[in-house]
Amino acid sequence: MTTASRPIALLHGWGLSSKVWAPLQAHLGPNTLTLDLPGHGSAAPAGDSLDAWADALASQLPNGAVLVGWSLGAQLALHIAAHAPHKAARLVLIAATPRFVQAPDWPAALPEATLSGFRADFDTAPDATQRRFTALQAMGDGRRRDVTAALNQALTPADATHHAARASGLKLLADTDLRASIGN
Description:
Helices cover 43% and strands 11% of the residues. It is of the alpha/beta class and 184 residues long. The chain has a single domain (3-182), classed as Rossmann fold, CATH 3.40.50.1820. The protein is globular, with a radius of gyration of 16 Å. The relative contact order is 0.18.
């Protein structure tokens, strides 16, 4: 199978839905699949472990796909590639890191206190926190307002089921360390 004929699967980041990929999908064509992360968009929750989330996504993937992952979606793509390599022929990673939070031997990441504060804010004011998060994604962009508005249109619904999944997603970002699986 040539790279051009491979299916492309797009995995969004935390708190968003697959709607975020609509402009890109229009350019990539009909061989493109957009998946909602567990408990995001229209997808059912899948527990609170990285394995459970990756298994839920992998079950929807054709073999030999090009996985395009953004942030948490990138961590899931990395995990799928390591644990179900027949599903991932190639990886395209956007804003990706095998470990989201700093460690003594991993300083080029978000300080743990910053993510802990974000999680605490999300617990008390989830919608405002999520909108602040989308605004941060657009910082420095000349079209900041348009980008923020587009991201806000792709947010996961703010109901109890989705809240639990978004909280689980933040926990995954806090706890996941894939450095060993990528050869550090």
